[in-house]
Amino acid sequence: MRKKVAALLVIIALLVPSFVGARNLVDVSLGFGAAYAPEEPLDFSLGMNDPDNYLFSGELSARVAFLQAQALVFPMTCSDDGQGVLLLGISSLSIPVLGPLLAFEIGAGVGVTYIPTSTDENSKSYYELADGSKVDAQQKSFTQAVWESPFYLQVGLGTEFGPIGFKLRYLLESRASVGTVLNQDTWWEVFDVEKGMISLALSLKMF
Q: Per DSSP, what are the bridge partners of residue 96?
């Protein structure tokens, strides 16, 4: 009996926000956008004239009621001028404020920076970890790299006009890695922020 009641409460928790917010219960979308990601953490406005601080992005987003998962890809230039990619996985809450017209989003995830081999014969693919170290991709698996990569925090706003959506996000990169926080049970280190980026994205619903 208790299991049935618990299952019913879970179903209600999933359905009510969708009905109240007048949004589709399930939403899967593809999108692209751009981000301003300055390397200077002290003054967010210092790098606005530097074109290297602007990144393009692609993303895949899936939402069930108010639970949302996002995968974002940012091609980027790394600290040693190598061409790499930042892979972000974010789990978040998408809370309707004005039905489909406005939703507040808050979440967290992990970002893995991967730099593939270049045309240089001596170059090797590597991961750039939360502590700034660079580790050969042949010596560390992707799962291990995720464990040692930085946490990301996200706050943002989303809006929908039919099948088209817009999202404005503020992404904060933490100094803490996933492994540091989980192994040492120091969850508050997630809020020790290294730097941030502002992202604006356009999305198209697939279904």
A: 103
